[in-house]
């Protein structure tokens, strides 16, 4: 059984769930729309450039969650799944997941987005494990603080190694990792079978230099 590891945003779905959740909150009136749209766009440009300061972004995007109970947030997230996420799920991604599942591989998503945003998506994709940014909860609310190492850049490698220490029956022997982003180069260099999926320009160049396969999971019209 090999580990088949997947990034989520812009890899298994045709968009960035964290950015889209921010847009959703603004459009639904959960936050100040003008301020949040501006901040959301600002940090997303930084993420694409690989220059984002994670602590600053987390302070920005997690604060709104503290204003609602977990039960209230679930109602909003259910609407988000129906209205925003399901329409950008990719048939080719589902087929790739099925291929690995049929091979007997262990399916894992490692994402730099919070568990709050991504856990319902991961469940719908029927993966075995999700490693995401973990959020502190107190009295049925998120506190705005992060628990443990964030799964971003080198943090993805750290969290995966921690998981492997807890699950000695698994290893990176024969492992796969699929991602679109140069931010995931640290993890791509750890696995036996790295794949660049609809990659950004920097990752595409790295893939060509290293002889990594480049593939697309998008339909032609996207």
Descriptive overview:
Helices cover 46% and strands 18% of the residues. With 222 residues, the protein is α/β, with parallel strands linked by helices. A seven-stranded mixed beta sheet has the order 4-3-2-1-5-6-7. Helix 1 (17-27) packs antiparallel against helix 2.
How would you name the CATH homologous superfamily of the largest domain? HAD superfamily/HAD-like
Report how far the terminal alpha carbons are from each other: 34 Å
Query: How can the largest sheet be summarized?
Result: 7 strands, mixed
Number of helices: 9
Please, what is the average pLDDT? 95
Briefly, what CATH class of the largest domain? Alpha Beta
Form type = globular
CATH architecture of the largest domain: 3-Layer(aba) Sandwich
Number of domains: 2
Percent of residues in beta strands: 15-25%
Structural class: alpha/beta
Question: Would you list the SSEs in sequence order as H and E?
Answer: EHHHHHEHEEHEHEHE
Provide the gyration radius in Å. 17 Å
Order of strands, main sheet, comes to 4-3-2-1-5-6-7
Number of strands: 7
Low-confidence stretches: none
Using the coordinates shown, work out and report the CATH topology of the largest domain. Rossmann fold
What is the percent of helical residues? Answer: 40-55%
Itemize the secondary structure elements and their pairings.
Elements: E1 3-6, H1 17-27, H2 33-49, H3 54-62, H4 70-85, H5 91-102, E2 106-114, H6 115-125, E3 129-138, E4 141-147, H7 154-166, E5 176-179, H8 185-188, E6 193-197, H9 201-210, E7 214-215
Parallel strand pairs: 1-2, 1-5, 2-3, 5-6, 6-7
Antiparallel strand pairs: 3-4
Helix pairs in contact: 1-2
């Amino acid at each position: 059984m090999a580990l088949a590891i997947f990034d989520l945003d812009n890899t298994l779905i045709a968009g960035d769930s964290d950015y889209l959740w921010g847009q959703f909150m603004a459009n639904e009136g959960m936050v100040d729309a003008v301020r949040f749209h501006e901040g959301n766009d600002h940090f997303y440009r930084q993420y694409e450039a690989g220059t984002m300061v994670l602590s600053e972004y987390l302070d920005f995007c997690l604060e709104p969650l503290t204003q609602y109970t977990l039960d209230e947030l679930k109602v909003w997230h259910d609407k988000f799944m129906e209205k925003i996420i399901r329409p950008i799920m990719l048939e080719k991604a589902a087929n790739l997941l099925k291929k690995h599942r049929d091979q007997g591989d262990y399916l894992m998503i490692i994402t730099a987005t919070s568990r709050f945003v991504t856990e319902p998506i991961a469940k719908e994709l029927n993966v075995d494990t999700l490693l995401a940014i973990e959020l502190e909860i107190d009295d049925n609310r998120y506190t705005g603080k992060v628990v443990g190492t964030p799964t971003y850049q080198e943090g993805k490698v750290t969290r995966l190694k921690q998981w492997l220490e807890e699950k000695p029956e698994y290893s990176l022997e024969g492992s796969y990792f699929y991602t679109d982003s140069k931010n995931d180069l640290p993890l791509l260099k750890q696995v036996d079978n790295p794949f660049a999926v609809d990659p950004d320009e920097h990752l595409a160049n790295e893939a060509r230099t290293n002889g990594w396969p480049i593939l697309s999971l998008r339909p032609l019209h996207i």
